[in-house]
Design a protein that fits this description.
- The chain is α+β, with helices and mostly antiparallel strands.
- The protein folds into two domains: about 190 residues, no CATH class; about 180 residues, no CATH class.
- It has 13 helices and 16 strands.
- The strands form four sheets. It has a six-stranded mixed sheet.
- The radius of gyration is 26 Å and the shape is globular.
- The relative contact order is 0.10.
Length: about 450
């Protein structure tokens, strides 16, 4: 069995939006109450666990917080499970020397989420809230689907759930003026093959080393450079302009003004939605690019070699941090790894300090004085001249060849490259050939 997710936009009415905001607040209240109680009991020397806190909250919620009964019970139960996971992560990170103590959740405009368990989730092709749903033509039923929310009713979705399987749960969230339902569905392998792109027929013969970069997001050992869409850089000017306008609108600027009850103006609320929508557009472009690229790679290659990048350390460089975050190296590698498991692709990760860029892919000599500004690799020993990133991808490919004793370097035919270029172009992904290939001085 395979667990997969599907995120679908909702189109709620005003009554349903009010319910969602109540559920967001109840989920935030339960999490913050649990964290405060955890800290209090820990100081008193008691042994604390998430299950005990959930029982304690359920015992008092009817008297102290009766409004939580207006929403689904999972809105105030799941936060305690999330709190337990947060503390387990905190204790695991302490062993690695990293501090990640759970923080209180803040109330944010146009943001929030809550969970609904799979036992309370049901879908319908017709709106059961309407008294005239029987008069809907049969062909119209297939164009829509409704999600049943406890204590609320049926909420219309913009598309149907793609997968046939058991629904484990749903997370309803808000981003800007949009509402989404993220389904966690347990499906079989046959259902996964039916709903996902099929692997290439000659995939077993294809191997690739992938070097990650900023100008080109990925450089393949086949000589293909996948261009970086740079969504944040292209929309940063608009985000800054809206942020400056938002700061000028009436709102509480200090803690004293918040305590005095200074309210946010209507213009502030309108602009905050506009800012959230602009930021969501950036994340959607980045998410769409990563999903498409990783799917193409894991359906075209049987072996992939990647770098083990220290992304957190790279973001400490103030000159590169924004560009590194815009590419999202961590998410790119994570999706390649989990999709490789589903598609039967073997992943080989190079060591953290493997000199892929400094090693000559022709003779194997290491150049110690290579700078970040040197975009072309010049080998002092054999005289090879090659693109820096393409050279790194070839060195990563050589790790696969060395591991497979007796294997040769795979040579992609023009038909293979043309098919790969067409697959990228069909998905709207810009690519190019690496300009500087393998050269050697005579």
């Amino acid at each position: 069995m395979i667990t997969i997710s599907h995120k679908i936009e909702l189109t709620p009415n005003n009554k349903q939006k009010t319910y969602f905001r109540k559920a967001f607040g109840c989920a935030r209240l339960a999490y913050n109450w649990g964290l405060a109680e955890w800290q209090l009991r820990y100081k008193e020397g008691e042994k604390v666990d998430a299950y005990g806190l959930k029982k304690a909250f359920n015992a008092i919620k009817k008297d102290e917080y009766p409004f939580v009964l207006e929403v689904t019970k999972y809105a105030t139960q799941q936060p305690f499970i999330n709190l337990g996971k947060a503390f387990r992560k905190f204790f695991d990170d302490l062993k690695k020397g990293v501090v990640s103590y759970p923080q209180f959740k803040k109330k944010k405009d146009n943001e929030g989420s809550f969970y609904i368990g799979g036992d309370q989730v049901s879908l319908s092709d017709i709106n059961c809230n309407s008294k005239t749903f029987k008069n809907v033509p049969h062909n119209e039923k297939l164009k829509r689907q409704y999600l049943r929310v406890p204590n609320l009713g049926w909420v219309k979705m913009t598309e149907r759930l793609r997968f046939i399987g058991k629904i484990n749960g749903v997370v309803i969230s808000q981003q800007g003026n949009k509402y989404f339902a993220s389904f966690s569905v347990q499906i079989t392998e046959d259902e996964y093959k039916r709903t996902h792109p099929k692997a290439c027929s000659d995939k077993a013969n294809r191997k690739a080393g992938i070097d990650l970069g900023i100008k080109s997001a990925l450089i393949l050992s086949d000589g293909i450079a996948v261009d970086n869409p740079k969504p944040l850089k292209k929309n940063l000017r608009k985000i800054k302009r809206i942020s400056r306008q938002l700061d000028k609108r009436t709102h509480a600027r200090t803690k004293q003004e918040r305590l005095e009850g200074r309210k946010k103006s209507n213009n502030y609320m309108k602009l905050s939605v506009k800012l959230s929508n602009a930021q969501r557009k950036v994340s959607n472009i980045r998410r769409d690019f990563i999903q498409k690229v990783t799917t193409i790679l894991t359906t075209h290659y049987s072996h992939i070699a990647l770098e083990d990048l220290n992304v957190k350390g790279m973001t400490r460089n103030h000159r590169l941090s924004q560009s590194v975050s815009d590419v999202a190296f961590g998410e790119l590698c994570r999706q390649i790894e989990y999709k490789s498991q589903l598609n039967g692709v073997k992943i080989l990760k190079a060591e953290r300090f493997y000199p892929s860029s400094k090693t000559c892919s022709v003779c194997g000599s290491i150049k110690q004085d290579l700078k970040l500004s040197d975009r072309t690799y010049h080998c002092d020993k054999c005289g090879a001249v090659i693109d820096r990133d393409y050279n790194a991808s070839l060195n990563l490919l050589s790790l696969i060849i060395k591991k497979q004793i007796g294997a040769d370097y795979p040579e992609s035919t023009p038909e293979d490259l043309a098919a790969l270029f067409f697959c990228f172009a069909r998905n709207g992904i810009a690519t190019s050939k690496v300009e500087t290939g393998r050269q050697r001085k005579l």
